[in-house]
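Batch 3, record 17
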Amino acid sequence: MTRVTVKNELNVYESAEARFEAAAQKLGLENGLYRYLKYPDKEITVYIPVGMDDGRLEVFVGYRVQHSLVRGPGKGGIRYAPDVSLDEIRALAAWMTWKCAVVNIPFGGAKGGIICDPAKLSQGELERITRRYTAELMDWLGPERDVPAPDLGTNEQVMAWVMDTYSMHMRRTTTAVVTGKPLDLGGSRGRREATGRGCMIVCDRALARLGLKREGCRVIVQGFGNVGSMAALLMHQAGYRIVGVADVHGGLYNEKGFEIPALIDWVHIKRKPLPEFPGGGEKMSPQEILFQPCDILLPAAVENQLTSQNAHRVQARILCEGANGPTTAPADEILEEKGVFVIPDILANAGGVTVSYFEWVQDRQGFFWRESEVNERLQDVMEHAFDEVVRYSETHKVNNRIAAYMLGIDRVAYALKLRGIYA
Ligand code: GLU
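Prediction for the assembled complex:
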C-alpha cells in the first residue's frame, strides 16, 4: 500500500504534491532533481481589463503556469471558471507535465485559467477577455514555447481567438500556437472526440486484463461536457451500456441503459436540462450517481469528487478518470483497499493532449491527416502508455496512480539529466 499524507484534502495542489512525493520516493529520485521538479518553472499572473457590454470596466484575474519545459514546449489547457485559483492551475500544470511524459509526447506541462463565469458573459465579453489575456502572454506563448488548448469553460471558438490574437501580434498566421481549434483553422480531425476516445481505449484494455467484456458492461459517466458526452457516445456505440449520466443539474440512473445519441441531442442541441431527459431513469444528485451499481465509473466533470468521506461507497470494478483530479489523495487508499482498478487521470484523459500533439504536428507540416489515421495513432499511443503504467505498477508493487507518476517523473528526470543544468 502506498501511503500519502495531506493537510487539506480538497486542495488539489496538495493532492498532486503528495502523489509526486510518494512516486519520487519510490523512484529514489535524488534530492536536487526532486526539488527541481517539485516547483514550477514560471507562474504568471495577469490582470485583464475588459470593457463590459453595459459600459463598465471590469478587471479579471488570469494565470498561466509553466511547470516544466524540459521535454519540450509547455502544453495544457486554459480554464474559465469562477473558482479558478493559482494553486489549482499549479496542480493542473504539473499534471500536464506528467501526462505528456506518460504518453511520451514531446511537450512539457503548463496550464492557464481566468477567474470568470463564462455562462454569465456575452460572446463579445468572452472574446475581449480572451484576446487581452493572450496579448498579455505574448512573450511566453508560441509553437515552440507554450501551446494552450481548451479545458473547462473554453472551446474551439476561444482557441480561434487565441490563434488570431497571437497571429496579429506576430504579423503572420501561426496556427500551431494553440490546439483544439476549429477544423477550418488548422484543427485536427478527431480532436473533439479524442479525450473520450482515449478513455474508451484504456477501458477496453482494463476489461481485457480483468477478463471482462464490453457487451453489457455497465458504465456511469459523471459530467456531460466534451469529455463525458464523447466518452458516453463512443462507448455506447461500441456496445457498453451507459446506465448512469449526470451534469451540474443532476443525475439519472437507469439499469437498462440510455440512448446516448438522443441524450446528446436533448442536452447539446435542444439545450434542455439533463435530468428532464424523456428517456427516463431515477433522478438523483450529480454526486449520488457515483455510488450506483456499475462496472466502470467514469468521472468526467470536476475535481474532488471521490474523497475519504465517500470513496468506500464506490461500487465500480474500474475507475476511469476522464476529469483531472476527481479523486483526492486519501481516497486513493480506500479505492486500493477495495481492489478498484484505477486508470488515473494522467493516463485516462491523455487522449486529448495526444491528439493536440497530432494537431500541432499537422499545423507545422501543413499537411492534414485522415480521421482514421488520427484514431489509429491515438490507439497506439494510449495502449502503449496503459501497458507501461501497468508494468510499472507490477514491477514496483505500487498502485496504478503512483506507477503513472513514476513513469512520468522518470522520463522527465532522464531528459533533465541529459540536458544538464544551465548556469
Ligand atoms: N485540457 C486538456 C487536458 O487537461 C487538454 C490539454 C491539451 O490538449 O493541451 O489534458
